[in-house]
Amino acid sequence: MAKDKTPVTPAVRMLRTAGVAFTEHPYAYEEKGGTAVSARELGVDEHAVVKTLIMEDERKLPLIVLMHGDRQVSTKELARVMGVKSVVPCTPETAFRHSGYLVGGTSPFGTRKQMPVYLEETILELPRIYVNGGKRGFLVGLDPRDVVRLLKPVLVKVGIVSS
User: Fold this and answer.
1) Measured between alpha carbons, how far is 81 from 68 in angstroms, rounded to an integer?
2) 1 pLDDT exceeds 80?
3) Which of 62, 63, 71, 53 is nearest to 122 (CA)?
4) pLDDT tens-digit profile of 20-74?
5) pLDDT tens for each residue of 84-138
6) By three-state DSSP, how is residue 81 classified?
């Protein structure tokens, strides 16, 4: 994909404005393919593909969870860490309303609303991660420390191995 073919999403604009060095990784998007497909298409370990999940607490307050592609979020543990009764994934429509991105193309960067971000702490052990660039079939590769610098997430340990 030529440089001028990069989708100019709110995420890409935010990364460029912040001076973050990132690589662009377009791939053939598959409906309901998730991180397994993007990892396969990019030829990277699914553990390094970080999914952006829009969730909400019992008061309907939205939040972002960044999790390894090969892990699930323990919503029970996340709620405990946050000091709330419950945390549940948003419906695709609600996630779009909060983030401005379609499910499958949700980036933690350049969201429509400012939301607290919770980052699985073991993501910081990786030298490079791949996160959605704001469009289905488009990931950006970057240093996880840039995610911390830009989003100032709360580091959590809420990942569980997918069954």
Assistant:
1) 18
2) no
3) 71
4) 999 999 999 999 999 999 999 999 999 999 999 999 999 999 999 999 999 999 9
5) 999 999 999 999 999 999 999 999 999 999 999 999 999 999 999 999 999 999 9
6) helix
Q: Burial of 35 by CB count in 10 Å (0-12 exposed, 13-18 middle, 19+ buried)?
A: buried
Inter-residue contact 148 to 118 (CB < 8 Å): no
With a CB cutoff of 8 Å and minimum separation 6, the contacts of 110 are 9, 10, 11, 12, 13, 14, 100, 134
3-state SS track over 136-149: CCEEEEECHHHHHH
- Spatial separation of the C-alpha atoms in residues 38 and 43, rounded to whole Å: 8
Distance set, CA 124 to CA 53, 68, 146, 147, 155 (Å): 18, 11, 10, 9, 9
Chain centre to alpha carbon of residue 9 = 15
**In Å, what is the CA distance from 77 to each residue of 1, 88, 108, 158?**
41, 12, 21, 6
The tokens for 118 are 């919770």
Distances (CA, A) of 54 to 3, 15, 21, 83, 128: 30, 20, 25, 18, 22
